[in-house]
Amino acid sequence: MAFEGLSGKLNNVFGKLKGRGKLNEKDIKDAMREVRMALLDADVNYKVAKDFVAKVSEKAVGEKVMDSLTPAQQVIDIVHRELIELMGNTTAKLNFPSKPPCVIMMCGLQGAGKTTHCAKLAKHLIAQNHRPLLVACDIYRPAAIDQLKIVGEKAGAHVFEMGQTDPVKIAKEGIRYAKDNGFDIVLLDTAGRLHIDETLMDELRNIKRETNPSEILLVVDSMTGQDAVNVAQSFNEALDITGVILTKLDGDTRGGAALTVLAITGKPIKFAGIGEKLDDIEPFHPDRMASRILGMGDVLTLIDKAKNTIDEKAAAKTMQKMQENKFDLNDLYAQFEQIEKMGSIHSLLKMIPGVAGKVKEEDIDEKKMPRTKAIISSMTPKEREKPSIIDAKRKRRIAAGSGTRVEDVNQLLRQFEQMQKMMKQMGFAGKGKGKKMRIPMNMMKQMGNMGGPGGQKPDGAPPSGGGGGPKPDDDTPRSKPTGEMPQKDSGNAKA
Hints:
Distance between the termini: 43 Å
Structural class: alpha/beta
Largest sheet: 9 strands, mixed
CATH topology of the largest domain: Rossmann fold
């Protein structure tokens, strides 16, 4: 997970400080030496790490900190503020011109995820009520145009292409097409190379000169560490980029690129790719990222994820069923689906203050939820609505249908029963309309723990996911149909 290694080392350093109570200059000096080593191990540029530690040290040995009742917390606060400063202080937003379309030129080396992130950014912009047009300017890489068409369709974005012709002409015609057809954003998917060369840069300079883009976003692989920073520096010198999209941030345990890009190039990180799905892109918030690095959680991003994924009407209906003590396994299945849309359990737990920094990846069995969904999917509508009717014979059938064991079915039913009792105790059921409803963390944990026993794979290799619930009008197990929802405004435009 993002910054895992750096977070662990910094938390160890600050843990030692907290254990000492009052601090002296030697304590600060020793701690800062460990912080510097942690940053260097995270592949942060040496000069950047040195300057960062110098700034923190200067402020940490001040009278205000040394005489404080909680000096360790004061030091952590200083580190937190300096991390925010290092990554940009404020969230860098896209620059929209007064007159559309806004032309965004996407560039980068091959393999960084440029074409995929064109589609990700398009989908992100569609959610903000924009109409982006993807323009296929990469005529060199085999199947690059086809790839853009595929990911563009999945994102619900229109794709403009002219085949194997001059990329500059394609870009200009794409912008003209956008103006004529009411698209307010144009995303130019330019060609990449395996390495930086003059041919590539000349082509990109020509596209820039002829299209006058509002944004030039460089897509770089965060997992390459300082190589990513070097690439950013080279592209910035040639094109004067306006911002960076860091990809694969979810797999970057070190975080050197994220902490160094701005300091070296002077250009902000505007977006971060945090997974393989088209929804896995988010604006880069320096303050939230600094909190994650220090194990403080990121409740604001968690709220944003919830807002973007949770169906408010469905949530209200679920709450009502909780109040009326009618929450059943169909509702539990729906809750699991909502949680899955928000991302992995581990990534969500890391955003919760008080939990972040204490949860290790190996402690979380991400297969539990799909396994539990498979068990519920093997039940009939009546069994989901009234689990108490599930006897030994039904349990054996459910276990066989889901590829799990009878013990797993029993565990799910016990945990669900406990959850129902918890709801009653918390006042979800019965009267009390004026009460402020809140779901405690232990209830959420209870949901996350459902499924097979702690990470063990049941005999019979359970499926990676289960189908959804059948319609509650019969007593026959069915699987939920799979496949993507149809997308609006998708298609390809050809000159």
